[in-house]
Amino acid sequence: MSSIAGHTLQSLMRVTLLSSFFGLHSSENMTETLYRDDAYLKSCTAQVVAATEQGVILDRTVFYPLGGGQPGDIGELRLVSGARLSVSDTRKGAGDEIVHIVAENATVPAVGETVEAVIDWDRRYAHMRMHTGLHLLGVVLPFGVTGGSISAIRSRLDFDMTDTVDKETVCRDLNALIEADHPVLTQWITDAELAAQPELIRTMSVKPPQGAGRVRLLNIPGVDLQPCGGTHVAHTGEIGPLRLGKVEKKGARNRRVNILFDQSD
Ligand SMILES: [Zn+2]
């Protein structure tokens, strides 16, 4: 346990920044982003604001748009007519719109129409577990993060480090943090509060955006605190056991560490 305590202490002093990979958003969106306040929402009713060949824009949504290494949600829009419109991806559009990508030849709903937006929950929940797991990986390996990617099967972080990764120790410490079932909280901080606490930012390559007014923070008390716009589980125990995949040497100062769900039992 001493290494975990050591990491915890380290992370308290060192608060990390994975935000360039997990996305940051201002609070002024054209599309109300319900997933930010409650990542567990599987569906919502919403009104169609625009529907083009690019996709459907709603006044509010539970669909997470591609960003910060986390894939855009897939799912469907259920129309008043009973028709179901498949959503194959979700992207940020112009301004702060969120675009639900539909098939080119799909019959889209009319502006003003009410729809039920339903995400593929199993896929999203896997993303939430993986995403939270990557935060813990960043705690166990306290190095600068230069890249990252999430999927429902496998996820990875690129670390700015030259050391060899001791897979066994990393795996053990990672799973200890998961099993400790730490609460995972979201809080907002103003630009002024952030500016007053520069130690909150681990300056690897990208700083949190200034001028948006406020920044969304992920807070796993005593473990991790950093700007992040992605979706997370509420307790680390929900991640379930993880195992380390390949550790790839992607350059003199880059170690790519892969994690997977451990479904061995
Ligand atoms: Zn995050």
How many domains, as an integer?
2
How far is it from the N-terminal to the C-terminal residue, by CA? 24 Å
Q: Kindly report the name of the CATH homologous superfamily of the largest domain.
A: Threonyl-trna Synthetase, Chain A, domain 2
Fraction of residues in helix: 10-25%
Estimate what percentage of residues fall within beta strands: 25-35%
CATH topology category name of the largest domain: Threonyl-tRNA Synthetase, Chain A, domain 2
Tell how many strands the DSSP assignment holds. 16
Structural class: alpha+beta
Query: In sequence order, what are the helices and strands, one letter per element?
Result: HHEHEEEEEEEEHEEHEHEEEE
Specify the CATH architecture of the largest domain: 2-Layer Sandwich
- As laid out across the biggest beta sheet, the strand order is 6-5-9-2-3-8-7
Instruction: Name every ligand kind in the structure.
Output: zinc ion
**Overall radius of gyration:** 19 Å
Low-confidence stretches: 1-29
CATH class of the largest domain: Alpha Beta
Average the pLDDT over all residues and give the rounded result.
85
SS field, number of helical segments: 6
User: Which shape, going by the Cα principal axes?
Assistant: globular
Major β-sheet annotation: 7 strands, antiparallel
